[in-house]
Specification:
This is FIMAH domain-containing protein. Pfam families: FIMAH. This protein is α+β, with helices and mostly antiparallel strands. It is built from four helices and 25 strands. Strands 17, 19, 21, 22 and 23 form a five-stranded antiparallel sheet that branches.
Length: about 450
């Protein structure tokens, strides 16, 4: 079946050009398998993006691993910018050095043509390949014979343009010996045939029909257009064979909040060659507490390579201590994700903190000046008791502070201010080990 040029998507086909390795494809550094396995000497699955947040047009990286490898070693990887209407084939093949592999990407050309076209891509083990195309025994004798040939190093490709439609034999030779052949290749108008020479054929050990496996042919439908010059083009390298994808980066700072107080911290995430559409909290240690990044607190990247802005909210239910929040970008998307940790320090309430809070509330009009004076006097009593090493008197003063704020809420002190001061007072009592401290909700 012929594949057409994608219109509202971009695609990457995958080819395994190695004889003895079943591979799996992982996308954008995710350890979860994205695409199914590709068996030796076969054309496998296709990766498609459609411009949505889940599959945006941007640079994507692809990693090849051997199936069920317990060490999850990356055998080869490549990155590629995918934009609307583009089609590629990524070929996994042997590298320049023993026991190495490469993932080479070629772009599939859908340019109009007057007759048929053939693209030959060399991904097999021989370093140099000589290929030839000639009418086979079943070719229509009324059609003028069209012979083409070329020489390729691995990994290169050549285009044979404006081939007269007929039935052909495609042959591959290395060091003068036939390595593989397609006995009957019916080239037609409105079609581009792409032939991949793959694997490591052994003519002395394989039967002739087994050598056919070392040509893999992919068909593409192309529009009819003005005739091109009937030539074989110069060898071309792949458009990509390395991974130059830039990783996602977080720009954050350690967070400090006071016990019983809510906190919020804005931060940015950027993928220099991609989009960031979301972020979530994946872990918070020690467990417990309300720590989250709501969906409405994330501003997605306004453009390719531009930062997304998010806000992390820290609840008021955390005890004093050190915490670690783990964030993950682009949850639920095939795009590249990253994991990042932010340390969170919850500071214990102190007398100095209570004084500062009381002064702030007084300045904002949440506490009358005279009532603020009464509360401040109780804080002075607490400090004096602590200085005299009288813990019971210190606890009693804080307890009176708590009760006075409760008795005057809605009057000399607003309800929210009374609630905040009581929570902080009781947290301080708990930290001091006051026997009369009681939980308040």
């Amino acid at each position: 079946m012929s594949s057409q040029q994608p219109q509202n998507t971009a695609e990457v086909w995958f080819l395994n050009a190695v004889d003895d390795v079943i591979v799996e494809i992982f996308v954008n550094r995710d350890d979860t398998l994205t695409l199914s396995e590709v068996k030796p000497l076969e054309l496998g699955p296709v990766f498609v993006v459609d411009g949505t947040q889940q599959r945006p047009y941007q640079t994507h990286c692809f990693q090849i691993r051997q199936k069920e490898d317990p060490e999850a070693r990356v055998l080869a990887e490549v990155s590629l910018e995918l934009t609307r209407g583009r089609s590629f084939t990524a070929s996994f093949h042997v590298g320049e050095f023993p026991d190495t592999y490469t993932l080479s990407v070629f772009e599939n050309d859908f340019a109009p043509s007057g007759n048929s076209r053939l693209t030959v891509r060399h991904l097999g083990r021989p370093r140099v390949l000589e290929w030839s195309l000639s009418p086979n025994e079943g070719a229509d004798p009324r059609i003028p014979a069209d012979h083409r040939d070329g020489t390729l190093r691995r990994p290169q490709q050549q285009h044979a343009l404006e081939i007269v439609p007929n039935s052909y034999r495609l042959e591959a030779r290395a060091d003068g010996q036939v390595m593989a052949y397609v006995p009957s290749l019916d080239l037609q108008t409105e079609k581009l045939f792409t032939a991949y020479f793959v694997g490591a054929p052994q003519p002395s050990k394989q039967r002739p029909q087994e050598l056919r496996r070392h040509w893999v042919v992919q068909e593409f439908k192309v529009p009819v257009g003005a005739p091109l010059e009937p030539v074989v083009t110069f060898p071309e390298p792949p458009v990509a064979d390395t991974n130059q994808d830039q990783p996602v980066r977080f720009d954050t700072a350690p967070i400090e909040v006071w016990e019983t107080n809510q906190g919020a911290a804005r931060f940015s995430i950027v993928d220099p060659d991609g989009w960031v559409s979301g972020v979530e909290v994946t872990q918070f240690e020690p467990e417990g507490g309300d720590v989250r990044v709501p969906d409405n607190a994330v501003q997605s990247s306004p453009g390719l390579g531009e930062p997304a802005i998010a806000t992390l909210f820290i609840g008021d239910d955390l005890s004093d201590g050190d915490y670690l929040v783990t964030l993950r970008s682009n949850p639920g998307s095939v795009t590249e994700s990253a994991v990042h940790e932010i340390p969170v320090k919850v500071k214990p309430i102190t007398l100095a903190r209570l004084r500062d809070e009381l002064a702030r509330m007084e300045g904002e009009g949440a506490v009358t000046a005279s009532f603020a004076g009464q509360l401040r006097g109780l804080l002075d009593d607490t400090a004096a008791a602590q200085a005299a090493n009288e813990p019971q008197e210190a606890c009693a003063a804080l307890d009176r502070f708590d009760e006075l704020a409760e008795d005057n809420r809605g009057g000399a002190i607003t309800n929210p201010a009374a609630q905040a001061l009581r929570r902080q007072s009781q947290a301080l009592q708990r930290d001091l080990g006051c026997p009369r401290w009681r939980a308040w909700f």
